[in-house]
């Protein structure tokens, strides 16, 4: 009797209920539903249909799934099982027979544009509902763990590399892509598979050159950042070459010129140059396998590659001996020196240096900041620290920029075209040179996951104090074409919050026995403590708002009840808290404004401090400050929560709208706020949230709640069998979501203009 299923899912679940226990009783449905497929069981890809009316179309859909797996570096099941649920038939295909199709790249959903594909006849047709023999065969197939070996190419090498590195901790690039074409004979995994031998065929290409534009991606993130330039998208390269040609036009008549790129990688920046332009290039890269590709692709076209040829000792632990641009040896390289010392040669530098920042959260999370910061002991860093103080020396890209002007550029007609986040000029004042033009690009297209602004600027070797720069902005569309955005004005920052606004007062009655709190507003139990835990009845909380940029906004914007364990801020006091809250509000900007032109462009500043303090003194901005107070009470990054401390004290949240237990400092002050419709709506929405919060099981009537404390302690949830979040109090969750939307709108319309006016944002 045929089965009748109203949809695929019901039939799919029934199938797995019947057969999974017979295959592997530890397997769960969640284990096999991966990569948008109907299921992968051992060496089998399964595709279900209520009825299969077009076997070609369904098979093609399965092939597309396998293509996507190959690109991601996932093994390809040998068997393709197409299940027609109603008539209980399974059509069995061998993926090996369709490898040429699997190794193509498809765009769009797997189930669309499947017409026109022609398959061979199935190897088997199993009538699993009618034949015990066929049913037994099905179970045998489902138990099999055989895979089709794929061929490595430029479309899938990144996926397989990432898999290799994740499964083989400590592996180097040579372990993966090593070949025997250089002086060093290292056979990598792709040429002689061992770890992946069940899944990939040996790569037999003569060289690795076809991978050149992805070579920089073939390492873990931190190592990649530490070694060399990011892959630069072709559309951006084409645009930046306009700046190179502008620099060439500046070369005095009768002068020769060189174009020096110390971190050329595989020559991404140079690949669109004319032969004439290439003939002036002097290139180097620190990474050995990039060097080999660079030599192969451009060795006969450029003036010099450093070193010119590979020697027995060129390979140095995966790096190129003599090509370390941070070393004294490189600065004294006789080839480069010859040009630097010749006044009849104009120096043009053209680089996309690495952006590694050793204090970044990604380094900290990986626990590899020391290992990946070996460059900090280099000659150039040592020399730079003699002249430059502060955080600028923590960023690898800055070392390249500083050293360019220090050691290579000598004449007013020399030029530097450099890709880098704008911070080096805007906030760190690393250089004060004449700006001749530049572009803003979206960092997302540089093999990163971050939508943020990268500046490509043309600088001259002429000292000029500028307060602003104008950049043409370009994104890239899905077809790789440039998308012009509005021009961007970059304004320089001269002062930080800590310099102008932090409350550094000490009170005679301050006690040193308060609480240490973590970022979540709860008591901190770790060992790292770098703040004195003050207590005073005039202390409302602790505010940490540091870093001029927004690279990690939730780390760099903290508002909690007592001292943050690692410091970075100041204690918020009852006599002046209102005038301090704009710092917290400004620190939330990037959370609500995520366009790529904002991030790494808009930064925090205290440049308007004098005007702001005058406005505070004259009571001119009282209503603006009260609006910011209202925002602060409702902002979810405000992690102030009422709590009973281990020091025996009760800490009541005074920056809360919850007046259940009497007015708070916030509600007293907000009584002076002249309410428009937006403010009234926010107060009303808060009341809806609080009403529902009081109905929850965990509600404590003795506490004074913030929005964050309600979310964290009262808006509880569970996971269902499909790993979907189910909220215990849907009304509360709904009101909270509505409030978040309203807060965002209120922030951008009522708060942001004030923050820019007084240069808390710039």
Describe this structure in words.
This protein has 762 residues and is of the alpha/beta class. The protein folds into 4 domains: 8-148, no CATH class; 157-206, no CATH class; 234-466, Vaccinia Virus protein VP39 (Rossmann fold, 3-Layer(aba) Sandwich), CATH 3.40.50; 497-757, no CATH class. It has 26 helices and 28 strands. The strands form 8 sheets. Strands 8, 9, 10, 13, 14, 15, 16, 17, 18 and 19 form a 10-stranded mixed β-sheet that branches. The N and C termini lie far apart (73 Å). The model is unreliable at 219-229 and 358-371 (pLDDT under 50).
Number of domains as seen in the coordinates: 4
Distance between the termini: 73 Å
What gross morphology would you assign?
Answer: flat
Largest sheet: 10 strands, mixed
Report the strand count. Answer: 28
Average pLDDT across residues? 88
Supply Rg.
Answer: 31 Å
SS strand fraction:
15-25%
Structural class: alpha/beta
In percent, how helical is the residue content?
25-40%
How many helices does DSSP assign? 26
Give unreliable regions as ranges: 219-229, 358-371
């Amino acid at each position: 009797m045929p089965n009748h299923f109203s949809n695929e899912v019901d039939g799919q679940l029934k199938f797995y209920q019947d057969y999974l226990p017979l295959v592997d009783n530890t397997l769960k449905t969640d284990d096999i539903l991966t990569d948008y497929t109907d299921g992968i069981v051992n060496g089998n890809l399964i595709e279900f249909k209520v009825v299969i009316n077009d076997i070609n179309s369904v098979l093609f859909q399965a092939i597309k799934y396998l293509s996507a797996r190959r690109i991601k570096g996932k093994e390809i099941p040998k068997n393709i099982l197409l299940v027609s649920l109603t008539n209980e038939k399974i059509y069995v295909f061998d993926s090996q027979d369709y490898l040429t199709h699997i190794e193509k790249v498809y765009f769009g959903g797997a189930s669309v544009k499947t017409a026109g594909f022609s398959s061979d006849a199935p190897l088997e047709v199993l009538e699993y509902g009618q034949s015990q023999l066929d049913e037994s065969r099905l179970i045998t197939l489902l138990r099999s763990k055989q895979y089709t070996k794929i061929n490595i190419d430029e479309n899938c090498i990144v996926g397989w590399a990432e898999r290799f590195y994740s499964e083989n901790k400590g592996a180097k690039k040579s372990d993966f892509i090593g070949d025997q074409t250089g002086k060093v004979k290292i056979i990598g995994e792709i040429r002689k598979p061992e770890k992946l031998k069940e899944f990939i065929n040996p790569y037999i290409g003569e060289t690795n050159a076809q991978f050149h534009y992805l070579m920089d991606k073939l390492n873990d993130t931190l190592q990649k950042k530490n070694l060399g330039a990011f892959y630069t998208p072709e559309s951006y390269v084409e645009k930046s070459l306009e700046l190179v040609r502008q620099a060439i036009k500046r070369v005095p008549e009768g002068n020769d010129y060189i174009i020096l790129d110390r971190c050329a990688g595989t020559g991404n920046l140079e690949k669109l140059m004319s032969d004439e332009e290439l003939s002036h290039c002097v290139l180097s890269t620190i990474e050995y396998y990039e060097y080999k590709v660079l030599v192969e692709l451009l060795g006969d076209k450029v003036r010099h590659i450093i070193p010119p040829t590979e020697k027995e000792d060129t390979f140095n632990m995966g790096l190129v001996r003599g090509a370390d641009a941070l070393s004294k040896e490189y600065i004294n390289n006789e080839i480069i020196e010859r040009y630097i010392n010749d006044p009849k040669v104009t120096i043009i530098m053209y680089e996309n240096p690495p952006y590694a920042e050793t204090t970044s959260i990604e380094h900290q999370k990986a626990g590899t900041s020391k290992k990946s910061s070996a460059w900090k002991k280099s000659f150039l860093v040592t020399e730079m620290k003699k002249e430059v103080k502060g955080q600028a020396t923590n960023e690898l890209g800055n070392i390249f920029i500083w050293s360019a002007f220090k050691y290579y550029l000598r004449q007013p007609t020399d030029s530097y075209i450099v890709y880098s986040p704008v911070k080096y000029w805007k906030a760190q004042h690393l250089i004060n040179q004449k700006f001749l033009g530049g572009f803003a690009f979206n960092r997302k297209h540089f093999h990163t996951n971050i939508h943020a602004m990268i500046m490509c600027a043309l600088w001259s070797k002429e000292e000029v104090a500028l307060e602003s720069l104008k950049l043409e902005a370009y994104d890239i569309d899905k077809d790789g074409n440039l998308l012009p955005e509005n021009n961007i004005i970059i304004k320089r920052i001269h002062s930080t919050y800590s310099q102008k606004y932090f409350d550094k007062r000490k009170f005679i009655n301050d006690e040193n026995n308060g609480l240490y709190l973590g970022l979540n507003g709860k008591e901190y139990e770790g060992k790292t403590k770098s703040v004195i835990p003050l207590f005073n009845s005039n202390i409302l909380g602790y505010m940490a708002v540091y870093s001029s940029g927004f690279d990690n906004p939730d780390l760099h914007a903290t508002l909690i009840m007592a001292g943050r364990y690692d410091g970075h801020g100041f204690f918020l006091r009852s006599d002046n808290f209102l005038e301090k809250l704009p710092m917290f509000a400004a620190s939330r900007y990037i959370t609500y404004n995520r366009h790529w032109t904002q991030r790494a462009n808009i930064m925090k500043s205290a440049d308007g401090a004098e005007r702001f303090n005058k406005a505070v003194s004259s009571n001119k901005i009282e209503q603006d400050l009260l609006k910011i107070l209202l925002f602060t009470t409702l902002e979810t990054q405000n992690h102030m929560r009422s709590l009973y401390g281990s020091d025996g004290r009760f800490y009541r949240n005074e920056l809360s709208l919850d007046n259940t237990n009497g007015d708070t400092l916030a509600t007293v002050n907000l009584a002076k706020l002249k309410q428009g419709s937006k403010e009234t709506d926010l107060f009303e929405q808060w009341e809806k949230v609080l009403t529902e919060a009081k109905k929850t099981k965990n509600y404590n009537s003795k506490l004074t709640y913030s929005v964050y404390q309600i979310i964290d302690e009262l808006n509880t949830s569970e996971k269902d069998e499909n790993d979907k979040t189910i909220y215990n109090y849907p009304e509360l969750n709904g009101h909270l979501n509505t409030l978040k939307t309203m807060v965002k709108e209120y922030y951008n319309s009522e708060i942001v203009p004030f923050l820019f006016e007084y240069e808390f944002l710039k």
